[in-house]
Design brief:
The chain is mainly alpha-helical. The chain contains 16 helices and no strands.
């Protein structure tokens, strides 16, 4: 028995190491950008700093994916590209309209709540890397903020912040404060406070009353980010509650942590007992793993 569990435990350790190394690489890339303060992103150029940022964030994303892909169902893997597209399209529209909010993390939060912190982090990182390489170079250095948002969304789901409609905006408020603190040094040291949209005017207003550049971007972030995340988390919880509970319960993370309360808890086991009863005359409680091996593919895996 103990021998059979050894490879499983080894795989768990290996996967956690991948995720941990991926997180370290992303944080190291963030620190490089903050300490190096490259100006090429603000000028729209592609140079050494851009290459390092792309490699760092991509490598971190790949390592996180390597450590989590084994426990992500097909539904999640199919959802991630859709979530990335939603992030980029809605975020680009908000930036083009000059809004003081971003609306670029709807997909990231959705994946984080349904599939967990690691999947949310992966979605956020890939969103900003793809967005920065194709449409807006400004998005690339903020990939670390997108990672933080995905992680916090996953933990918000894990801690039950989506079991009641009114709790989701509270989780959004907390996420927005943390996101502001993470992103304000990037806005100050890399972009000089000019990150586009309607936020430049807010930074200029704080500068006009004597605040430093970092203080001005921090104050601007603490105004815009919490508001943005409250709105975004509210949009996400509306979408999630509009989805059928059977669809939500297809995600192992939702079932394991009872993300949506009793409704998801009761929805998960409906299929397996029926099929187990139909496939064998013996009671389901005595078949155990044998019933799974004899009818593999009919019982949901997590």
């Amino acid at each position: 028995m103990s021998t059979s569990h050894t490879p499983v435990e080894a795989n768990k350790v290996r996967n956690r190491v991948f995720v941990a190394i991926g997180a370290v690489v992303i944080i190291a890339t963030y620190l490089y950008l903050i300490l190096g303060q490259p100006s090429e992103f603000a000028e729209g150029d592609f140079g050494q700093a851009s290459l390092i940022a792309i490699i760092g964030y991509l490598l971190g994303s790949v390592l996180i994916a390597a450590g989590t892909i084994h426990r992500l169902p097909t539904t999640t893997i199919a959802l991630v590209p859709v979530a990335i597209a939603v992030n980029i399209v809605v975020g680009q529209i908000a930036a083009s309209l000059g809004l003081p909010i971003y609306l670029d993390s709807i997909g990231t939060i959705l994946v984080g709540v349904l599939a967990g912190p690691a999947a949310g982090a992966l979605t956020g990182a890939l969103t900003n890397v793809i967005w920065g390489m194709t449409i807006s170079p400004i998005a690339l250095p903020f990939a670390v903020t997108a990672v933080v948002i995905g992680v916090l969304a996953g933990y918000a789901g894990r801690l039950g912040m989506f079991r009641r409609f009114y709790l989701a905006p509270i989780a959004g408020l907390i996420t927005g404060i943390v996101a502001a603190l993470v992103s304000s040094p990037i806005a100050a040291f890399i972009f000089g406070g000019a990150t586009g949209g309607g936020n430049g005017a807010i930074v200029a207003a704080f500068r006009a009353v004597g605040n430093s550049l970092l203080a001005s971007t921090t104050f601007q972030g603490l105004l815009s980010d919490p508001l943005d995340k409250v709105i975004t988390f509210t949009i996400v919880v509306i979408i999630l509650y509009a989805l059928p509970s059977r669809f939500r319960s297809r995600f192992p993370f939702v079932r394991e942590y009872n993300v949506f309360g009793k409704q998801s808890e009761h929805a998960a086991p409906t299929r397996a007992p029926r099929r187990a009863a139909g496939g064998s005359d013996s009671p389901a409680s005595t078949t155990g793993d044998d019933s799974r091996s004899s009818d593999s593919g009919t019982t949901p895996t997590s």
